[in-house]
Amino acid sequence: MNIKQVVILMVAAIALLSGSFSLGLAGDAALPKADGKAVYEYLTTTNPYQKWAFYPATGKFYEGRHPHGALLTTYVNDLALDGIRAKAGTLEDGAIIVKENYSPDKKLGAVTVMYRVDGYDADAGDWFWAKYKGDGSIEKEGKVAGCISCHAAVINNDWIFTGPVK
Ligand code: HEC
């Protein structure tokens, strides 16, 4: 085999490898539709959020502000984590942030979710909002005016309070 053939083989191998890599990423294609039930199913069964990373610079049971819990634990999926770390300014389609809201005695009161769905709500950052009770039942979902109006205060940080994304 001459050098040229070796190079061609190597390029082919890299192309193959990156092909299977993007197939791996296609796991994201299994992202749920913007629907409270589908999202909950995804977060608890398909891709359990409690295995995700904490929101950068936060840990378990940090102190929250009104109106969320006294103690909070906030998780981000890989897409969200990448965007926050890269200071991307705007998180990518498919980014999910899940915040557990606890009472002072660490009882789970609610789980609130922001999920970026391209084209879902152009007026409000294309975020799908959901609030689940501790037992998983849906309290609010969709383009929730209450969530949107308060989070609008941080529109310049992609509607996110917890930490800078740019
Ligand atoms: C009155 C203001 C207010 C309202 C209403 C509100 N939030 Fe928040 N939200 C906050 C603040 C402040 C934080 C930062 C965490 C903290 O310190 O409590 C936050 C954090 C979050 C986070 C973590 C990501 C981030 O933005 O920092 C999620 C997810 C979230 N809220 C979802 C919701 C959902 C879903 C609703 C509606 C059901 C909602 N929020 C309603 C103020 C609000």
Essential attributes:
binds heme C, alpha+beta, 4 helices, seven-stranded antiparallel β-sheet, globular, 166 residues, Chalcone isomerase
Give an account of the 3D structure.
This protein folds into two domains: 1-27; 31-157, Cytochrome P460 (Chalcone isomerase). 30% of the residues lie in helices and 23% in strands. It is an alpha+beta fold and 166 residues long. Strands 1, 2, 3, 4, 5, 6 and 7 form a seven-stranded antiparallel beta sheet that branches. It has helices spanning 3-25, 36-46, 78-85, 145-151; strands at 53-54, 62-63, 71-76, 96-102, 108-116, 127-133, 138-142. The longest helix has 23 residues, at 3-25. The model is unreliable at 19-27 (pLDDT under 50). The protein binds heme C. Heme C binds at residues 64-65, 67-68, 72, 74, 97, 99, 112-114, 129-131, 140, 144, 146-147, 150-151, 160-162.
Helix content: 25-40%
Q: Biggest β-sheet, characterized?
A: 7 strands, antiparallel
Rg estimate, integer Å: 19 Å
Percentage of β-strand residues: 15-25%
Q: Which SSEs are present, and which pair or pack?
A:
Layout lengths: L2 H23 L10 H11 L6 E2 L7 E2 L7 E6 L1 H8 L10 E7 L5 E9 L10 E7 L4 E5 L2 H7 L15
Antiparallel strand pairs: 1-3, 2-3, 3-4, 4-5, 5-6, 6-7
The structure holds heme C.
In short:
The chain is of the alpha+beta class and 166 residues long. It has helices at residues 3-25, 36-46, 78-85, 145-151, and strands spanning 53-54, 62-63, 71-76, 96-102, 108-116, 127-133, 138-142.
